[in-house]
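so the lab meeting is tmrw and i was supposed to have these ready like two days ago... anyway. pasting both below. for each one the top line is the aa sequence and the line under it is the structure tokens. i havent really looked at them closely yet so no promises
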Amino acid sequence: MIITMLLTNAFEMDVRVYKEARYLVKKGNRVTILCWDRNEYSTLNTIEERDGIQVVRFRQPAVAGSGYWQLGAFLKYTLKCKKYLKNNPTDYIHCNDLDGMIAYLICGKRKPYIFDMHEYYIRGNKIKQSILKKLVKYFIKNSYYSLYENDGYLNLYNSNITQRLVPLKNYPDLDCLKPLEKTISDKFRIGYHGCVRGQIPEFKALFDACKEMPDVRIDINGGGIDLAELKELEKKYSNVFVHGPYNGIKESNNLYQNTDVLYCGYNPDNPNYQGDAEVVKFYEAIVTGTPMIMTESLGMGEKVRQMEIGLTTDTRDADSVKKVVIQMKNNKTQCQKFRENMLTLSKNYNWQNAVGILDKVYQKRS
């Protein structure tokens, strides 16, 4: 079976897509990923093979997460996909995220498609939410199957729509991320590893909370629309290090080995983080045994408290963040207990079990 994936991100940034593609290749499928390389100075090969996956990079400079400002670059990427699909046969098109789905629509393909929903898209004002709800409904209704990460979709539509939904939680793959002993350091290391967007108030609260703690080191890894502002903020603090994008496939283990506590400060008003929503960092922290500082008002905050795997606080208030940092920094016994609880729970967050749903999604059609 030939499967072509549309990915409006760099291949190296989206570990979920790599994990799915690698599984499908192991099952005997031919998988090609058409990805959007926004880096103007990228030295990566335009076409290469990774673990049996053909990776095709369309270089179109833009800033990830900049919304409408990258519309022109997005259209150029989409037209390149359209040309590729015209000249290369495929059995299925696997559309990652809502923008990947829109790219499919512009391409005008009529091949069966899989809608892979990495997050919850129904947000904004009432008019925007209404439009997005109808658009997502249309894409789910006409898909062969739609994969979902956020359970909110189950309550959004009737059974005629939800019958096409199948869950695929973005649990860590033990081949990419596994529990390892932390490296030894004379610093208390707080890390954030992921896309940086819409979290400036949370990061600033953390930076201010720790600015007078010479025994604390803060490392921020990841690209996104907040990166430029974070780089400017970095200059004001001696113990803050903003590193930019990283290779999630190759570098995640090392990052978590050198992280004592994972900072999970999220916008409490963002629908992506409401209710039962769980972000990939939540899973990564559990699997690697890295205690969390989590935004207290979120559903994930309640889970952190119930499972005793970290502390929660108002992550927009520097004084509140300071209190939990001091508590975790000075109470190694408590942090070790959090870590033990996480490693016990980690078996429940198993990618190898979850990804088997793709066998159903990509069953041979008669």
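ok protien two:
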Amino acid sequence: MATALPYADTVFKTVDNTMTQHLMSFASAQEQACVEREKPDYHKRLACLDAQEQELDELGELFQRADSTIVENAVQAVFAAENSKQCNSPKGRWEHPAAATNSASLSLSRELIAATGLKRAGKYAEAVQLADKVVTEVGDREPSLLASALFAKGSALVLRGDPNEGERVLLRALDIADANGNDYLRAQILVELTYVIGFEQWRGQEGLRWGRMAEHALERVGGDEPLSFRLAIGISGSHYVVGNEERSLEIGEQTLDRARRLYGDEHLLTAFFLSATGGDYANLGEPAQGLPFHEEAIAIGTKLVGDRHPEVAMYRNNLGASLTGLGRTEEAREQFETARSIWKASGSRAKEALALSNLLSLIHI
């Protein structure tokens, strides 16, 4: 992580600690799987663990050649890495695309893992390109791998800023997952579509319908905490889009409580839901109640990724919006200026423009 970014050292420490925890967890899970090797799903479970370990190895290689984009996204990427507990489920979570034993598909499976790593590390264009390569080469001979590659491509397209095309690709992936009976992948795709359609494309009513299908799909596979958090963002956002701010806040607070219980206070997911909850209170006309949530989000983010990280800039921007609602314009100006400075340094012109717009709005107050 040899970059000149002011938050690189903080990011490195968080990534190093988290990767160590992940590897210890995998070692323990692999040992347990071997102890229980008489169970009928032993080989699939072990293959799942091997595939998820490959995902961590891929992230490790990306971190070794990290540029500014990878450093910016490194903590989010390592937090999002697969948890070894997911390989314990008899409901299909060990049906990882890279767990296939077919030698003809092994190299493509590894390329799909690489595409997932690129997506998590913020390299969206490269992720789309590599996932598309897998789609082209696998053809129709491995439906599960094809659907997984389309899912990776579609979700990366959304992150790259092309939600329309991303939706089209995700719908194709869903058709294949349905036909192939891959319940867990189907749940993943439905969760993503809930967010993409309901919030990203501002079609709230449709998003809520997709959300109900996603909830049923998650129930079918026995639940999944990481997916449930992603789904909560999509459903809460869809409620906000249709004007149901109270329900959006309710979902946000419930999800924040779950994040605290599962991940504790030193996790970016907790910080994200804290900042979102603060914003929900502002949307309901109660910005004062949201201030402690914004402040805690900033404190957590600063500890995990440093006070000059673009993620912390978003938390500060959100705090500024709540302060504006309270008429505390000078304090709001300070938060917007700090956010703008961070985003300008990181090269995020769109977000810099957001902070500038917020600053200009103070002129009329």
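from a quick look at the 2nd one: The CA atoms of residues 97 and 104 lie 13 Å apart. The two ends are 43 Å apart (CA to CA). will dig more after coffe
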